[in-house]
Description:
The protein is mainly α. It is built from three helices and no strands.
Amino acid sequence: FNPDSAQTHQLNPLATDILSLLKDQPLDFTELNKRLISLYEDLEFDSEAAAYIQETLELLDGIGLIEPESM
C-alpha cells in the first residue's frame, strides 16, 4: 500500500525483496545486486538479470514506492 497515492500494488517476490532491502538505507545498484545475489543463490548476475532488476527499479519508482537518491 502506498499511503501517498492511496493505491495498493501487487508485487512479485523480487520487487518485494528490493523494497525490503531499500527500506532501511539507500543502496547503489552494485550493492543492491550483491544483496539480491545473496538472497537468490541461483541468480546469476548477467546482463539479463541486471536489465530485469533495473526495470523493476524503474517500475517501483514509477508507482511511487521508491525514488532515486539526490546527490
